[in-house]
Write a structure and sequence with these properties.
Blueprint (H helix, E strand, L loop, with lengths): L2 H43 L14 H14 L6 H5 L8 H12 L4 E6 L2 E6 L19 H13 L2 E2 H8 L5 H9 L3 E6 L7 E5 L1 H6 L11 H6 L36 H21 L1
Antiparallel strand pairs: 1-2, 3-5, 4-5
Helix pairs in contact: 2-4, 5-7
Length: 283
């Protein structure tokens, strides 16, 4: 390679190096100016429709929406001051609430004032939709449980027989509660002087206690095995075998009271029991 060729290569290399240096300097200047340029470009190209300005005191519709949102989300009623503190300065809160109240007057919820505070509440004519019916569970007393057990095992049984087995008198309220629950009904009249009413269990009783028939009630041995009977019972103690066959006084309402089904006899029973209780209180 001649000296001239070497000089030419050196000159080309120097020219390329100088060009690279100029390019790098220009790039650095562009990068340093880029933030301002991009920000300006962003401001120029930004869409004003995409920006949601804060409502002013003159923006009535927007303020109505704000009050609506505040009242809807509040856990308790809000007073005027609490609402005004969240709205633009100068907003006429009283007029806004009045307009909102008129808007909601025909709807399913109304804007109402309670204790000088405002809240949404279900319209008065729709409160029936919020009603809920629930059955109140009541625990039977020990006297009621004992009476129920005697009726179940000895039916049909009269009140006097229940008292004889229990050893204490049966109050009117005890039998009333058992009949109100639907577990005890009147089964007929015993063919003895005074024609006393007899009691027995119902289908609701068997359904509640999971019995296919009255005969499925536990007997003496089952009750003892379950620990429901004391160990020191009298030798002659026995648990009767419950039966739905009945006996004297079972279904006997038709001789002197034709076409009667248990309602009239029940009314008479309650009436006579009420009179007896009133007489006891008077004495």
């Amino acid at each position: 390679m001649t000296d001239e060729q070497i000089n030419d290569i050196v000159e080309e290399t120097e020219a390329e190096a100088a060009e690279h240096v100029e390019t790098a300097e220009a790039t650095a200047e562009e990068e340093s100016a880029a933030p301002d340029g991009e920000e300006a470009s962003s401001d120029e190209n930004s869409d004003p429709d995409n920006v949601t300005p804060f409502p002013t005191a003159d923006d009535h519709a927007a303020q109505l929406r704000m009050i609506e949102a505040l009242l809807f989300a509040a856990a308790e009623p809000l007073d005027i001051d609490s609402i005004a503190s969240r709205l633009p300065e100068g907003a006429d809160v009283g007029a806004l609430i009045e307009d909102l109240q008129k808007m909601y007057a025909p709807r399913g919820v109304n804007l109402i004032r309670l204790a000088n505070k405002w809240m949404f509440r279900t319209a008065d004519d729709l409160t029936f939709l919020m009603e809920r019916e629930a059955i109140q569970q009541r625990k039977l007393s020990r006297a009621a449980m004992e009476t129920l057990a005697i009726i179940a095992y000895h039916q049909p049984v009269t009140r006097a027989e229940i008292e004889e087995i229990r050893g204490v008198s049966v109050s009117k309220g005890t039998l009333d509660v058992l009949m109100e629950t639907g577990w005890v009904r009147l089964r007929g009249r015993r063919k003895v002087p005074g024609r006393p009413v007899t009691y027995g269990t119902t289908e609701e009783f068997m359904i509640h206690f999971g019995l296919e028939s009255i005969g499925d009630l536990p007997g003496h041995e089952e009750l003892r095995a379950a620990g429901l009977l004391e160990a020191n019972l009298p030798p002659d103690f026995d648990v009767p075998t419950p039966s739905a066959e009945g006996g004297d006084g079972d279904g006997d309402f038709s001789e002197d009271e034709p076409e009667e089904e248990y309602g009239q006899a029940l009314d008479e029973h309650l009436e006579s029991a009420g009179e007896a209780e009133a007489a006891e209180k008077a004495s």
